[in-house]
Amino acid sequence: MIEMKVAGIVLNAASRSPMILLKDSLERRALPIFIGQDQADAIIKALEGNRPSRPLTHDLVAHIFDDCDIKLEKVIIHSLTDDIFYAVLCIESHGVKKEIDCRPSDAVAIALRTDSPIWVLEEVIADASIPVDRDADDAERQAFKQFVSSLSPETLIKKGGYKEKH
């Protein structure tokens, strides 16, 4: 799993629909997730530190967690099926841990309000992320190709990477 941060809310150029934009810590990969306007507004409010006079739904959930001694340990965006992302809230209360199914947009909105980390499975990032720094990706790919092309069976045997069984 890779921890990601909310980079912001962006609009899809073609559809004008809002998307959460998550980035990894090195800002090498970005994961755009389409969301509804209400969730976009809720996430923007949390990013700006805007606290409404009356709690909105995500604020209410965060207050319930706090008042009932429930800790949101992390959010995990764990799969992508038919262009739909799936997430869980990983909570702990009185020594009991549970995972609660949740839309990624709601999970992110709650995570921002509880200062909880957002994790994404590598498979999801591989399937749906976009490169932010193509030059760094290309340089890393070239370095790996050079490394692999320089390997020989003799080198692996000398380094202990291969041992024959008798």
TrEMBL record:
GO molecular function, a single term: nuclease activity
A Pfam family of the record is BFN_dom
Task: Indicate the segments forming the BFN domain, all copies.
Answer: 1-132
Q: Which domain of life is it from?
A: Bacteria
Looking up SUPFAM superfamilies in the UniProt record yields: Hypothetical protein TM0160
Q: Please state what the protein is called.
A: Bifunctional nuclease family protein
